[in-house]
Amino acid sequence: MSANEICHVETTSFHNELGSKDYPFEKGRYWLYTSKVCPFAHRTEIMRSLTGLTYHIGLTIAGAVQTEHGWDIGVRYESADSATSPIVDINRLPGIYKLAAPAYIGRASVPVLFDTKTNTIVNNESSEIICQLDEVATQYFEHKTLYPKDKKLLIDTLITELADELITPIYRAGFAKYQQTYQSYFGKVFACLTKLDKRLSETGAYITGDNLTLADVHAYPHIARFDAAYHSLYRLNKHFIRDYPNITDYMARLGEISAFGGTLDIQAVKDGYFLAWNQPTEGKFTPLGPEVNPRSGVAVAVTVNT
Ligand SMILES: N[C@@H](CCC(=O)N[C@@H](CS)C(=O)NCC(=O)O)C(=O)O
Prior knowledge:
By secondary structure, this protein is an alpha+beta fold. The chain folds into 2 domains: about 30-140, Glutaredoxin; about 150-300, Glutathione S-transferase Yfyf (Class Pi), Chain A, domain 2 (Up-down Bundle). It contains 9 helices and 6 strands; from the N terminus they run E-H-E-H-E-E-H-H-H-H-H-H-H-E-E. Helix 5 packs across helix 7 (about 245-255).
């Protein structure tokens, strides 16, 4: 399998619904597998925390550095949040996929929302998982939805824009094999950041206005990884995020919310990207700079004291 084949713009295979007849919401029944490096998995950690579902859905955060054997859930990421996987005899995430669907031969990606009652995978697509967490928490608890009916169209449009104009181009540039391909996606990434900076100068606190929505949960994880990882690893080096004043303020604002800033670990992100087997660099070591705000990921200085 080549690096391009496992690039993050690939699709996922499990699309069941938490809260449906087959997967009714029950305290303690479902389990999330994530990794600190993965921005898609990060969305689900943010949402689990924002909804208060931390008390109802367990979490195993895999070791941040992925190898060719898949995510390591045996030696998990050390934190108060990350618990031992309930499937104790399986140490690698591909084993969980095999248990859930023995004939499955696709990627064993994070995030995974797993059903411990039937040993099946409910869903492995972050954008769907976060919607489902939002819905379940709104239905059963006092969570105020981040996907209100009157804003759905706007939120969907912004999420699609972020995916097509920022997130996918980040990976396409990063894994490009030719100058021209790299250049064209490089241009798209920085055009989108300029557009987002302008948008944030007009909207107020968050992407859609004064209230936090699912669009912010989509935006934060990739932007938080930009200065420390994508800028150098994927050669997206026209600007740092810190060169965009409104995005910088926005990221600082989100970083103050514990579900966002408290779930970001920039060192784990850097190790995960720079030491992984499937990244576009030969040297397997982690760069020392830039110095970033630990709650937003935005560079505070581009020099580093060694
Ligand atoms: N579309 C998926 C993407 C998930 C994804 O690409 N995860 C990556 C890490 S960032 C992964 O686990 N890759 C492992 C592999 O492909 O083997 C989502 O949004 O959940």
